[in-house]
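[agent] plan:
  1. take the single chain provided in the ticket
  2. run structure prediction with default settings
  3. attach structure tokens to the ticket
  4. add a short note for the reviewer (M.T.)
[agent] executing step 1
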Amino acid sequence: MRVLVVEDEQLLADAVATGLRREAMAVDVVYDGAAALERIGVNDYDVVVLDRDLPLVHGDDVCRRIVELGMPTRVLMLTASGDVSDRVEGLEIGADDYLPKPFAFSELIARVRALGRRTSVPLPPVLERAGIKLDPNRREVFREGKEVQLAPKEFAVLEVLMRSEGAVVSAEQLLEKAWDENTDPFTNVVRVTVMTLRRKLGEPPVIVTVPGSGYRI
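[agent] step 2 finished; step 3 output follows
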């Protein structure tokens, strides 16, 4: 899942990003509304965690722009105000969910994951394919009933492949969905991660390489 965190309190923004990355999400971070508009014009995000009171461009205007573009991106709006009227206004602007500060980080994760499931064809919370069972919420993977321990990026790659439901996923798509924008697009990190993931999942191999196209399960 690719997430953009937009928050002008840099310590909070970086803490949120670090926590989401530990949950095997690819996260970009910006600290003002103008930078947010620049990022959504370049990258495809599943979810934007958007502070409402932003410098340069207000969070409301960022949210409106996402709606105007017709993007499938879901918006989780954050605010220091817990007033019902503010929550209603934020939802009417186009936000998909609303979370007042301070918040429990576990709730933030749950809301981001719930919104992420709504950006594409609805899929069950637990993904199953080719003898593999993947639970994004618990960050658990089982093959034929045996638990498989994966690093965050390995988990992220497997989740993208599982969500594709047998379709071929290119290395570029994996890079976009599982890594942030600071990753060198010419790196071999995707190939290396897929190789490690194959080894950990065991025999017989379930990840198929489609020459010149990508990977599929």
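[agent] step 4 note for reviewer: Helices lie at 10-22, 33-40, 59-68, 84-93, 105-116, 152-163, 171-178, 189-201.
[agent] ticket updated
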